[in-house]
Write the C-alpha cells for this entry.
Amino acid sequence: MADVVDTVVAAVRADLLRRSELGIAKYGFTLDRKDLNLRDWLQHAYEETLDQANYLKRAIIEIEHRADGGAGIVMKHTTIAGCGNG
C-alpha cells in the first residue's frame, strides 16, 4: 500500500503550505517564534475560532434567505485529484 495516496490529506497539506507561505510573507515570521507564551497562542486560536463561528453563521443566514434553501449552491474548493471536483 506504499503507493496509495490520500488525496484529501494531500490537498490539506497543500493548503497548509500555502497558508504558511502567506503568513511568512505577511508577518515576516513563522510559528517557530518565541515571543509568545502558551496563553498567547491559545488566545490567537480562540480569536480565530470566533472568526470561524461568524463566517459559518453568515453563510447559514445566506442559505436561509435563498428561495431554494441553498439547494442550488455549488461550492468551489481545492481540487482533489481523481474525485472529479473543481
The chain has a mean pLDDT of 88. DSSP finds two helices and no strands in the chain. Residues 38-65 form the longest helix (28 residues). The two ends are 27 Å apart (CA to CA).
